[in-house]
Design a protein that fits this description.
globular, five-stranded mixed β-sheet, single chain, Immunoglobulin-like, about 140 residues, four-stranded antiparallel β-sheet, mainly beta
């Protein structure tokens, strides 16, 4: 869990697999007027992969669609950013300046489910099995 500049803001972003194009940011506590911004590093820039409203949450979870998958698979960071700071920035935009003003952040590794014959999880359509350390 990460607490930042505001004593009433926090979130958790565990390592996980991308499911249905989305990642889960957990236990979000925020004041009204905030957004969860998931970014990845591209050189010196922090590129927005996806966003979700975090308006006045109290320990709630949010699913964030990764509309920009340029950093996938790989390390991503979830941050709480004020709507007024984020402005019109969205997926694919460089949010380096905005995320410097985040009040809470946490890093996660986002990966693909791994194919394996040793797991009991199977696709109902293809019969393919998969497992991943982050997906268990």
């Amino acid at each position: 869990m990460s607490k930042g500049n505001s004593p009433d803001s926090s979130l958790q972003f565990p390592d996980q697999c991308l499911r249905g194009g989305e990642v889960s940011v957990k236990n979000i506590t925020s004041e009204p007027g905030w957004t969860v911004v998931v970014t990845y590093a591209e050189g010196p820039s922090q590129v927005i992969a996806g966003t979700a409203s975090a308006d006045g949450l109290d320990g709630d979870d949010r699913q964030v669609e990764l509309a920009d998958t340029g950093g996938y698979p790989g390390d991503h960071t979830a941050k709480l950013v004020a709507d007024s700071v984020l402005g019109d920035a969205g997926p694919g935009d460089d949010a380096s300046a905005a995320v410097k003003q985040a009040v809470a952040s946490d890093r996660a590794h986002i990966e693909e489910p791994r194919l394996s014959n040793s797991t009991t999880r199977k696709s109902s359509t293809t019969g393919t099995s998969w497992q991943s350390k982050a997906c268990r």
